[in-house]
Design brief:
- The complex is a heterodimer.
- By secondary structure, chain A is of the alpha/beta class.
- Chain A is built from 15 helices and twelve strands.
- The longest helix of chain A is centred in the N-terminal third of the chain and has 56 residues, at about 75-130.
- The N and C termini of chain A lie far apart (about 70 Å).
- Chain B is an alpha/beta fold.
- Chain B contains 18 helices and twelve strands.
- Chain B has helices at about 1-10, 15-45, 55-95, 110-120, 125-150, 150-200, 200-205, 210-260, 270-285, 290-295, 295-310, 375-380, 405-410, 425-430, 435-445, 450-455, 475-485, 505-515; strands spanning about 335-340, 350-355, 360-365, 390-395, 395, 410-415, 420-425, 465, 490-495, 520-525, 535-540, 545-549.
- In chain B, the strands form three sheets. Chain B has a six-stranded mixed beta sheet. Chain B has a four-stranded antiparallel beta sheet with strand order 2-1-4-5, with helices on one face.
- The chains are: A alpha/beta, B alpha/beta.
- At the A-B interface, helix 2, helix 3, helix 4, helix 5 and helix 6 of A face helix 2, helix 3, helix 4, helix 6 and helix 7 of B.
């Protein structure tokens, strides 16, 4: 008995695994359809235009058959003229309607993509830095860029094509049956085979599309990471060795793309076989009917021959665009992962900006990162009085940055509470009242002035210059020909680590908030610059609560009080001098 | 155009695949024409009560057409995606010598756009443009002969209409698509940069309540991107409609012309069925051209961006073979009368720098932030060449040595060392790919990371960096130290090796470093005196000049 149990349990596990996967698959499809709902009126219009264009094929086939039959019969230009004029009118109308159908569908898809990208960006913003830590930037970028792009195929092509693939062939069967029942039956039989043929190919496309999406994310992730570490790799002579990894991911992406395309080509080939096979059957049947002089006659035979490809045209497009649907379903996984994670994270609304320097209390706060080696904070308690300037010291990795991340609401305590003026800090609530400068600031693409104004877009020029001066930003910026107007960040001038930190500090100065959190503000500064920055901080701290994570003895000397953290616990919360001073 | 030709030349390696694809495409088109031609002759025969011949051929050509079309798609796509994978590798390879001097402000988002979406945009060049254009031209030639056999005048009319569909419409589409395509590529890159900025700058943006503004920046780039893409669809739909109209018009014109010329044509009335259906089939060959030529603008813009990166001149390059010198045994380093200013900067970053360190010597360089200390190290690593003066290793000008040889002699410990997304083992292996686990554990121990390694859930296989275990600043510095120890180079450059570390950690990192200094030539820069304790001599630079030797 006992020996049987595990395998039974495994079987049950495997079964529920499969049904879980199916349920997931259904959920992704439902989500896709739901997202497409806003585009429904436009898609309906596109389908209507496409349908009328499809119906016009009947008129077109009728007129062309009459023209060719007339010419075969030796009719003159004056007899055929009016028919020809009518045929031209119909074909222009038909081409116009097809174009309209495509254009309307594209605009619908555009709206869906923009809405989904906006939701993804909002979700990422809501999730914040903590969630991103466990993700690769390149992979998430691929989700926002390439995976959202698959919605284009889904909305603009798959949805209309799917509707038209049934509607047009069924509509065209009516005249086919009316003219020649035998032809009608041939087309009906071939049409009935389409779903079977598609199902045979289709069940594998979902998996292949998901693999392709994973390969795409992997490629983007590796590229971004290796490009950003290129100098390090180069110094170790390892850049060339990394080419093998680059080749690997690039090849993996190619192989998975081809796997998807092979299936797509297979499905469209199957449909082509059906289309040409029925054409051959119909042609054979009509030719022998003509020879024996039986119904339906030359003009009708030509009409049917021209009509048969039109019956299969929407079906062939279905074959071509079937993978658009699988691609979107595969991509939905990546998009939903972000949206779901954001939905799970409770919403917080920014509280009113505090007017005066607040009190900060850590009450037995613990913080453990998922998969982390040990708790970053382990029952840390301290209090900072309003208006106090406190230096937070401790070995690197002891939990200083975690304490600041908790106040910012980037992380949530696993136990205990962080309070600001008595109210628990959760999520973004406190940010309106905080000015913050981190250790590895990001310089966003734009001018240096824009970067300084990040926390206060309407800051006047004088305030901007004053902050830039106080934080020694002007010192390097004034050496540049364009000064504060210089374009920095991506595609612009690169800043060194030390320069970026000074920018972050100036941002915090400009922000003018009652609580100031600074993470290593004087790192990378020589003693003179440090003194100048500290003088500036001395002016800033008046009337504000200031918490500075630091290793600098000078910062500690100037602080009102020192809090020391060791291995996540507060060991000293009083005035002291740090070792080495 | 030169951009496209240059990238086309890169596809030479896959020319075999491309040729097979083109042949398949030609076979498919010809078989398609044959199918409809035979069908037409069947109708003509039936109409005149003749004998039904060629039913077997009809089936054979139908099968050939389907098979050839399938093979064409497989081979052209396989070839194209192989070329794109080659291109990705090529571009990355070309980016290596550009780092760090020429990669400048590119922080990854824009580079990634070039490697991912710009290269993807080139698929049109290979799949949609070259093969279909060749096939369309050959088809037109064939059709001229075929129709010419019936009536040269009608052939001329049909070919003129075919030229309208195959040259006129594509030319208009190309014109319309040129600016839109360039906009699409530019807006796409801006969109990607915005997204990467959002993610890598999340903490800064959130703290400054600027997330909404960044979202607006992204939305603006996306609006441009989507607008360009929509305009592309409009152009594509209209030119596709124009092609269809012209194709059908030529059919109508042919039939009317036939009716006018009537009995003058060989084969008489019934042959019109053959001519009409063949014409219809032949127009299939020009149908893909408008879209292909419309996308040329986008493809060209993408190609330009790829070449901009791949063909940028590196700030420094290896000497030509005849000037290249072997690496000297001596590890003495010297800067002689070096002056350097960054491109576009009016101010010299270094001026009249004369410095020398003998083999085994230890030189400390002190000075305020921005004095030129890091630039000086960059000169020693030959990230840049001096505007005047020279930098030597063992008395040999760095410009006469292979870059890889120079870097192989130098270990660098700096605050900006990257932790790659990968296992701890992979992160160490960049310094010594063949080191075994015992050696890796050994250097981790020496770098003070023994307890760190012991606490890792998967030991050396633990994933670090993005999406991995977060390492603290001190741990990252020690990993960098472990790499330097593994590399075991005779020269050590220390760039603020303890910046951002607390006093205790600084002391222990320096203690771990000290044994490694023995017997090596060392240059250290720092604005912190503690870091320069172990140096024989300390010079001070300010404003790019030595002020105190």
């Amino acid at each position: 008995m006992v020996e049987v149990l595990p395998s039974t349990a495994d079987d049950v596990g495997a079964l529920s695994d499969v049904s879980d996967r199916r349920a997931e698959e259904r959920r992704r499809r439902r989500w896709l359809t739901g997202r497409a709902r806003v585009a429904l009126p436009a898609v309906a219009l596109s389908i209507a235009a496409g349908f009328v264009a499809g119906l016009l094929a009947v008129a077109q086939a009728f007129l062309l058959a009459r023209l060719i039959a007339g010419a075969i019969g030796g009719a003159g230009v004056d007899t055929l003229g009016p028919t020809a004029a009518l045929a031209v009118g119909v074909l222009v109308a038909r081409a116009g309607l097809s174009a309209l159908s495509d254009i309307v569908a594209a605009s619908a898809a555009s709206n869906v993509k923009r809405a989904v990208r906006a939701d993804l960006v909002a979700a990422l913003a809501h999730l914040g830095p903590s969630w991103l830590k466990s993700r690769r930037t390149g992979a998430v970028t691929a989700t926002v860029m390439e995976q959202v792009e698959t919605l284009d195929g889904f909305v603009a092509r798959w949805l209309p094509v799917q509707a038209l693939a049934t509607a047009i062939p069924v509509a065209l069967l009516v005249p086919a049956f009316m003219v020649d029942a035998g032809t009608g039956w041939i087309l009906l039989a071939a049409g009935a085979l389409v779903p079977l043929a598609m199902a045979a190919v289709g069940w594998r496309t979902g998996m292949a599309a998901r693999r392709q999406m994973t390969a795409m994310q992997r490629m983007s992730g590796v590229f971004l990471d290796r490009l950003q570490g290129l100098t390090t790799l180069k110094l170790f002579g390892a850049a060339e060795r990394e080419l093998a990894a680059i080749r690997d991911v690039a090849d993996g992406f190619r192989a998975s793309t081809m796997a998807v395309l092979r299936l797509a080509f297979l499905s469209s080939t199957v449909l082509e076989v059906l289309a040409i096979g029925s054409l051959a059957l119909v042609a054979g049947r009509l030719a022998s009917a003509l020879i024996t002089g039986g119904a339906p006659g030359l003009e009708a035979a030509l009409f049917l021959l021209i009509l048969v490809p039109e019956v299969f045209l929407p079906l062939r497009r279905l074959g071509v665009h079937y993978h658009d649907r699988s691609a979107a379903a595969g991509a939905a996984e990546g998009m939903l992962e972000i949206l779901d994670a954001a939905a799970r994270q409770p919403a917080t609304t920014a509280r009113h900006r505090l007017e005066r320097a607040p009190e900060v209390v850590f009450d037995a706060v613990s913080l453990a990162y998922p998969g982390g080696r040990r708790a970053a904070l382990d029952g840390a308690s301290f209090r900072i009085a309003p208006g106090e300037t406190v230096a937070l010291v401790g070995e690197s990795g002891s939990g200083k940055s975690s304490a600041i991340a908790l106040l910012m609401g980037y992380e949530r305590p696993t136990a205990g509470t962080v309070r600001l003026d008595g109210a628990a800090v959760e999520g973004a609530v406190a940010r309106a009242s905080i000015a913050w400068a981190g250790q590895t600031p990001r310089i966003v693409a734009g001018s240096l002035a824009d970067n300084l104004r990040l926390g206060r877009p309407d800051a006047p020029d004088e305030a901007l210059r004053a902050a830039a001066d106080a934080c020694r930003v002007l010192e390097f910026a004034e050496r540049w020909p364009e000064g504060l107007a210089t374009i920095v960040g991506e595609g612009g001038r690169g800043l060194s680590g030390g320069e970026a930190r000074r920018v972050a500090l100036a941002r915090a100065f400009l922000r003018d908030a009652p609580l100031v959190l600074l993470d290593e503000p004087t790192a990378n500064l020589d003693r003179d610059s440090e003194a100048a920055v500290l003088d500036a901080i001395d002016r800033l701290r008046v009337g504000r609560t200031v918490l500075i994570a630091t290793h600098s003895p000078e910062v500690v000397r100037r602080a009102d009080r020192v809090i020391r953290i060791e291995a996540g616990r507060v060991t000293v919360a009083a005035r002291e001098t740090v070792a080495g001073d | 155009m030169t951009d496209l030709l240059a990238l086309l030349a890169l596809a030479r390696k896959r020319a075999g695949w491309m040729a097979i694809g083109a042949i398949c495409s030609l076979v498919a088109t010809a078989a398609g024409i044959a199918v409809l031609g035979i069908a037409g002759s069947l109708i003509a025969a039936a109409a005149t009560g003749g004998v039904l011949a060629g039913l077997l051929w009809l089936r054979a050509f139908a099968v050939a057409r389907i098979g050839a079309r399938y093979l064409e798609r497989l081979t052209t796509h396989e070839a194209t995606f192989r070329v794109l994978a080659d291109l990705r590798l090529w571009v990355f390879e070309r980016a290596i010598p550009l780092a760090p001097a020429r990669l400048g402000g590119w922080r990854g988002g824009d580079l990634m756009a070039r490697l991912v979406s710009d290269i993807d945009a080139l698929d049109g060049l290979y799949i949609r443009l070259v093969t279909p254009t060749v096939v369309a031209v050959l088809t037109a030639v064939g059709l001229t002969f075929l129709l010419g056999a019936y009536s040269p005048a009608l052939a001329a009319v049909v070919i003129a209409l075919m030229a309208l569909a195959g040259i006129g419409v594509p030319a208009l589409a190309e014109r319309a698509g040129r600016r839109v395509g360039a906009e699409q590529v530019a807006a796409g890159a801006r969109l990607r940069v915005g997204v990467v900025d959002l993610m890598q700058g999340m903490a800064d943006l959130a703290a400054n309540e600027a997330l909404g503004r960044q979202a607006a920046t992204i939305a603006a780039a996306e609006a441009d991107y989507e607008a360009a893409q929509f305009r592309q669809t409009v152009i594509a739909s209209l030119s596709a409609a124009a092609t269809v109209v012209v194709a059908q018009l030529s059919l109508v014109a042919l039939v009317l012309g036939w009716a006018a010329l009537g009995p003058a044509i060989a084969g008489g009335g019934p042959a019109v069925a053959v001519a009409a259906l063949v014409t219809l089939a032949a127009f299939e060959a020009v149908a893909p051209l408008p879209l292909a030529w419309q996308m040329l603008g986008r493809t060209a813009a993408a190609a330009r961006r790829i070449r901009e990166l791949a063909e940028a001149t590196p700030a420094v390059s290896d000497p030509p073979a005849e000037r290249r010198r072997p690496v000297p045994p001596s590890t003495a380093l010297a800067l002689e009368g070096v002056r350097f200013s960054y491109p576009g900067s009016p101010v010299a970053a270094l001026e009249r720098i004369d410095l020398a360190v003998a083999e085994g010597g230890r030189l400390g360089i002190a000075g305020p932030s921005g004095a030129g200390k890091s630039t000086l190290l960059a000169m020693l690593l030959r990230f840049h060449d001096p505007d005047s003066g020279r930098v030597t290793l063992g008395g040999v000008d760095l410009r006469d040595l292979a870059l890889a040889d120079v870097h192989a002699r130098i270990g660098v410990l700096s605050q900006s060392t990257a932790i790659l997304a990968g296992s701890l083992r992979e992160n160490l292996a960049i310094a010594a790919p063949d080191a075994d686990d015992a050696a890796l554990a050994g250097v981790l121990e020496r770098a003070g990371l023994g307890p760190f390694l012991a606490a890792l859930p998967d030991g050396l296989d633990t994933w670090l960096g993005e999406a991995g275990v977060t390492v603290s600043g001190g741990e990252a510095r020690r990993i960098a130290l472990a790499r330097v120890l593994l590399k075991d180079a005779p020269i050590l450059l220390l760039d603020e090796p303890t910046e951002g570390l607390d006093a205790d950690t600084e002391r222990s990192v320096l203690a771990a470093l000290r044994p490694a200094l023995a017997g090596r030539t060392v240059i250290a820069i720092s604005h912190r005196p503690a870091a320069l304790d172990a140096m024989d001599r300390v010079v001070r630079i300010e404003g790019g000049r030595i002020v105190e030797a």
